[in-house]
Structure formats: C-alpha cells, structure tokens
Amino acid sequence: MASSTVTPPRPDRPPRPNLAFRRLRGQRSPAEFAALVRRAAREIGERVSCDARYIGRVEAGEIRCPNYAYERVFLHMFPGRTLTDLGFAPRSAVRGRGARGAGEAPCAHIPGPARTTSDAPDTDETSGAREPYDTQNPYDTHHDHEESDVLRRAFMTGGGATMAFATLGPFGFAHDASTPARSVRRAGTSEAGALEEAVRRIRLLDDRHGADGLYRRAAAPLRAAYALLDAGTTRQTTADRLHSGAGELAISVGWLAHDSGRFDDARSHYAEALATARMTGDEALEAHAFCNTAFLARDAGRPREAVRAAQAAQRVARPLGSARLMSLLALREAGGWAGLADRAGCEQALVRAQALYDRGACDDDPEWMSFYGEAELEGLTAQCWSTLGEWPRAARHAERAADLQDPHFTRNIALYTAEFADDLARGGRPDEAAVAGMRVLDLLDQVQSSRIQTMLAGTARVLLPHRRAGGVSAFLERHASTPRVP
In this structure, are 174 and 270 located in the same domain? Predict the structure, then answer.
C-alpha cells in the first residue's frame, strides 16, 4: 500500500469493518469468494486479480470504495444493489474535491511496491491513495487542484503501479526517461508489475477519454520501458514479463497514435512491438501486434496489407486457444476484404467471426481484449458494411453497437454513434443522422479522438445539402462551433 508524505486526515479513526460485504460472503472462505469475483468479472469482460487478501481488506474496511472495475463486477454479482448496499462509502465521500476541505492539499506519494489490479487503484482514505479516475474533464489544464488532471496523475504521480514508478527515481532514470543513468540497478518483479499496471491504466483512460490527450504524455514512459530492458534482470521469468510489458506498452502507445491520426508513428510503434515479440518468441504479443497492424493498414488505405496482417495474426494466434481472439482477427480480415471491395471474402470472414465469438469467453482470452464484447463485434461489422456501401445494413449494426456498449466505454459509445450518424446520412436519412450527430457532440467534452471528429466532419459534409431542415441546421451550426483537437 502506498504511503503518504503528509499525515492523512483523521489518522485516529480506525477503519470500520464492512459487515454488509461480510454477510454477502456467507459460508464461503475468502479464497472461494474471490474465485466467484474473478468468474463474475470474466462474464462481463473485466479482468481483476481478486484474491483472499483483497476480500479481507474489503471486509476490514481498508477499502472504503472499490475501483471502477470492481464496482462493475460487484454490481453484476448483486443486481439491484448499490455500492452503499454492499457496505461501501459513496465515491464522493472518499476522494476528489468533495472529500477535502478547500484548504487541504492532496496527498503526495512515494512509489511503493507494484500491485495487481485487485488492490492498486482502490480508494483508501487511511493511506491517502486515491482511485485514479474522476468525472472532470482530464484535458482541462486550468484546475487548481492536483487531482483534477487525470492524465498527469495517471502518468506522473500516485502509487507504485504508475508510469512514474517505471520512469523516475527508483531506477535512476533521467527525467526524460530516454536512457538509464549509470547507477541503474537490475530490474525486478516490482518493475515488471509497475509496467503491466501502466499498460492497464493507459487502456482504461483511453476507453474513457480517447487518445488525443494521452498520446503526447506516453512517449517518455515507453522509452523508460525499453530502458528497463537495457538495464537487464537476474531472472528469465522477470525478463519475459518485462519484454511482454514493453511490447504491450508499445502497442498501447501505437494505438494512441493510430486513434489520433498519427499513422506513421503508429506503424513504427507496432513494428517495435512485433520485433520485441519475435525476439522473445512471444506468440500472444505477436498476434496482438499483427492485429493492430491490420487495423491500421485498413484505416491508412492499405486493405491488402490489412488482409495479410490479419491472416498472419490468425496463424500465430491459433495455438493460443482463444476463440474470442480468433473472432476479432477474423473481423480485422473482413475489414481488409471490404476495403478491397471483395464482398464474398468479407462476408465469409464476418460469418467466421460471429461463429468464433459465439463459442464464448475462456481463461485463455488475452487481458487486452477486455474491450471486445458484442458491442465491438457489431461496431466492426458496421464498419465493414459501410465500406461496402451498404448504408442501411451498416446503420443497423452501428445502432446496435451503441446500444450494447457498457457506459464505462465513453469513447466507444461516441465512436459507434458517429458511425451510426454517418451511415444514416449517407443512406438518405438526414434528420435521424442529425439527431445521432448531436448525441456525439454531447460526448465530445469527455472524449478527444481525431478518428471520431474526422467521422463527424464527414457526416457534416454529407448533410450540407440538407441544411435547411431544422434538425440538420442545428447540428451543422453546433458542429461548426465545436473546438477541434489541436
């Protein structure tokens, strides 16, 4: 647990046991109950490393409010109940501005040992640690309070499992993280854990807010990750984790570049991840790198390369035993065939993707695939039909994708709704397109994605001939006044 450099508020108040949560556990042991939590998480596409120790901390009252991932899992396990019903304190009571008086400064932290998903980001008033996400605009750099800037806190401050842990003092790195200092010691399991947690943080922030505000902050942590590899390690298992973590971080940063329209940067990062995978024989990482390369090739107007990369990914991924991964890779191939105007090839890949998806999730599904549920399946299917010019069919899938998406994935809701609006506009339904476009504009104060803004701009151009219609006119005026991502 991270320690604080200042005295936490009300240090004399001991944690209050969570008796409601203890009653829910019933006769099961903490380990048995933790297994149920992990199983429930898999049912909704979450990944939590819950164990008996975490359950004990909750019941002891050390965790007054769970992080967002655990919140979704607990509410799934006990439908109809709120966090308060489960014995937790309201989030606003234990973190953020509402948790402190105006004159109280936020706690500073010294990086501690790396922690797993089960305990890293939970709100814990006694330690001063704070859950790393809030509902404020993370791109507003004019807040007076330190915790207001989500991105800076995620990468530069907080507990041990943050980007600061992998880039600054503990390993002797220079502040630009470009090269290790002479005094760097060999990397160990704490460093590997910090790197893995950093990848999770980036993905969660991207899900909520989009890529544009994140990409500029991610270059230094990526350099630091490869500096860890250069520093070396004494154990092969740790070296494998570091290589895998660095490769996954390269893919995550590549995706941030991809989604913010920096295709050349994205291609470089994906190639770096692919090289890392091949040097270490990491088939899972190689499949992931090829998967993203295929997606990038499709978006960059290289559909034949998209098909080849997706097929290469499927060859590598087949022994991994994940039907859901193979389903996603079939969708990547379908996108390439659509770009080549090969309707038959596209349809065959879509059918294969659906059949593989229907086999269900399993323990071999990669952690990074937590975004891939029925909503993403529908969204990628919509993109294929849109590329083929099948606007009504594309619109049906896009609308279903937006309806199915977990509210936590704000960026994807905006993306699917933008796709829906564009399909409606091109399919000759301008009034409905304007309504959907307005919904996207409502989300742009929470999401910054060049991909979404580009799609919306295309929809606006299609709707220009219909600008005399009331709803269309209002959409076009508001779209024209919306600030663009720099």
Answer: yes
What's the Cα-to-Cα distance from 337 to each of 60, 303, 330, 387, 394, rounded to whole Å? Answer: 55, 7, 11, 10, 16
Whether residue 244 lies inside any domain: the answer is: yes
pLDDT value of position 409: 80
pLDDT band for position 203 (50/70/90)?
A: low
User: What pLDDT, in 10s, does the model give residues 227-272?
Assistant: 766 666 667 777 778 777 888 888 888 888 888 788 998 999 899 8
Q: Is 149 strand, coil or helix?
A: coil
Mean pLDDT lowest among 2-6, 29-33, 274-278 = 2-6
For residue 384 the two structure tokens come to 């294929």
Among residues 224, 246, 281, the one where a domain terminates is 281
Residues 252/198, Cβ–Cβ less than 8 Å:
no
Q: For residue 442, is it within any domain? A: yes
CB 284 within 8 A of CB 366: yes
* Domain containing residue 89: 1-94
Task: Indicate the pTM of the whole model.
Answer: 0.61
Nearest-angstrom CA–CA distance, 140 and 133: 14
